[in-house]
Automatic annotation (TrEMBL):
Domain of life per record: Bacteria
Family to which this protein belongs: Belongs to the metallo-dependent hydrolases superfamily. ATZ/TRZ family.
Pfam families named in the record: Amidohydro_1 (PF01979), HUTI_composite_bact (PF22039)
Domain Aminodeoxyfutalosine deaminase/Imidazolonepropionase-like composite, chain residue ranges per copy: 32-56
Residues of the Amidohydrolase-related domain: 66-417
Top-level taxonomy: Bacteria, Pseudomonadati, Pseudomonadota, Alphaproteobacteria, Rhodobacterales
Name assigned to this protein: Amidohydrolase family protein
InterPro entries (alphabetical): Amidohydro-rel (IPR006680), Metal-dep_hydrolase_composite (IPR011059), Metal_Hydrolase (IPR032466), MQNX/HUTI_composite_N (IPR054418), MTA/SAH_deaminase (IPR050287)
Keyword presence, Zinc: yes
Annotated keywords: Hydrolase, Metal-binding, Zinc
Length: 465
């Protein structure tokens, strides 16, 4: 394998010449990219770049695809310690598993959990993650530290519930003051972007929903909330307000271009119109629908209506290529087969939804999501010298259906090499994992988690005894 650590030790004033370069109009040959000061400084035919920048060092990578880093529009970094605890569990696992687990984490465990999740994100090709906020008691700064140390670009939410759902529920004035401070804390930060969140609409008063959404809008930040994910939550909203959750958000004025709705799986035609007319964005989380949801978001219909959306993991598994595959598969299974739609959006839609469209939904369209001049140099080098891409007839769709994280040779954010061959280049991931193995079981045991089913391991052992 090419010694990428040595080649990219000094990424300034460097021309990268990949075999294929994934641009907005598809994968192209014969193009090069000039990296300078952590950005894509120029993109042009390779001969032109060499002529215009004779002092730049050139890196030839004929067997690699250079593509934008993938963006996870919805995840939970402080849930990594309990990933498989939710397997086979019925819906609304946040009440029985995630809230108790996150609420029991001390400062060190928030840090370790977040760093493990960030490691998984980068290994899976995600250069950016949109975190929905931690329910732990005041340890958000350690989550940010963990992500920053790995080099992951982070949109991080401060949860602003005033009706429960977190360990601490301050009074209204304190919530608003803390939210304002959070928005101001990362001004000029190269990797961290603030966001505000209400975990679910029923966890906040109408006034808080309205005010936090407005504060995010005026601060140029994203407002996040989980909406229309589970049938029971829709029914609770109807009983409480006579309106479905999305309808209620519209009623209180919390929808708009600043708002990022996680899930939107149980949506009516009129609610789809609300999303379209307000410019609200959606995180389409196909793996979460399979593993723990009640339905699949109608992403193809959203695309046809012009609703903004990007792909998200919801903390399920951090493999960006498998996420794209799941996005297409769920639309095919849920809608395409019955309608005789053989393309279900085509490979280009799901690749776009994991990059450019995801950046737009995350409020980062001017920062990342494309290989474009002036944007942050967040990108992947994918090894094309693999059986899965041989022969290659349609690389765009092949990436969606044949791509996997073990084909990613390098991950970059802000022009810096962060991962090579699936491992960090400047910190010890195995030491982190060893520490988590030593501490995870006691942390889980302390949390008042309520599972409905035993683990598969215990059932298997019982049957074999």
């Amino acid at each position: 394998m090419t010694d990428l650590r040595r080649i990219f030790a000094d990424p300034h004033n460097l021309i990268v010449a990949p075999g294929r370069l994934l641009l907005e109009d598809g994968p192209r040959q014969g193009r090069g990219v000039l990296l300078r000061a952590g950005r894509f400084a120029a993109i042009a035919p390779l001969a032109d770049l060499r002529a215009r920048h004779p002092g730049a060092r050139v890196v030839d990578l004929p067997d690699h695809l250079m593509m934008p880093g993938l963006i996870d529009t919805h995840t939970h970094l402080t849930q990594s310690l309990g990933k498989s605890l939710v397997f086979g569990e019925p819906s609304e696992i946040f009440r029985r598993i995630w809230v108790p687990l996150e609420g029991s984490l001390d400062e060190e465990m928030v840090y370790l959990s977040s760093k493990l999740a960030a490691l998984e994100c980068l290994r899976g090709g995600f250069t950016t993650a949109v975190d929905a906020g931690t329910r732990s008691a005041g340890h958000l700064g350690r989550l940010v530290d963990a992500a920053r140390e790995t080099g992951l670009r982070l949109v991080v939410a401060r949860i602003c519930n005033d009706k429960g759902g977190t360990v601490l529920v301050p009074d209204r004035a304190c919530i608003l003051q803390t939210a304002e401070a959070h928005l101001a804390a990362f001004a000029g930060d190269p990797l961290v972007h603030p966001s505000l969140a209400i975990s679910i609409p029923e966890a906040a008063s109408d006034a808080m929903l309205r005010d936090i959404a407005a504060m995010a809008r005026s601060g140029g930040a994203v407002f996040q909330t989980h909406v229309n994910e589970h049938l029971v939550a829709v029914e609770r909203s109807l009983l409480a307000h006579g309106r479905r959750p999305l309808e209620h958000l519209a009623h209180v004025g919390a929808l708009g271009p600043q708002t990022l709705i996680a899930h939107s799986t149980l949506v009516t035609p009129s609610e789809l119109n609300l999303l379209r007319d307000t410019g609200t964005a959606v995180a389409y989380n196909p793996v979460a629908s399979v593993w723990k949801g009640n339905a699949v978001a109608p992403a193809l219909q959203m695309q046809a209506l012009g609703i903004r959306f990007g792909l998200g993991t919801d903390g399920t598994r951090a493999d960006g290529f498998r996420l794209m595959d799941a996005a297409e598969t769920m639309q095919r299974a849920g809608h395409g087969l019955a309608a005789g739609d053989a393309s279900c959006g085509g490979g280009w839609l799901w690749l776009d939804a994991a990059t450019r469209m995801a950046a737009d939904a995350s409020g980062l369209a001017a920062v990342t999501g494309r290989i474009g001049e002036g944007l942050a140099a967040d990108f992947l080098l994918v090894d094309l010298d693999r059986p899965e891409f041989t022969p290659s007839h349609d690389l765009t769709w092949e990436l969606v259906r044949y791509g996997n994280r073990d084909q990613i040779d390098a991950v970059f954010t802000n022009g810096r090499l962060r991962m090579a061959g699936g491992w960090p280049v400047d910190w010890d991931a195995r030491a982190l994992m060893a520490r988590i193995r030593a501490l995870a079981a006691p942390a889980i045991a302390r949390a008042p988690i309520q599972r409905i089913h035993p683990t598969a391991d215990s059932l298997f052992a019982g049957e074999g005894a």
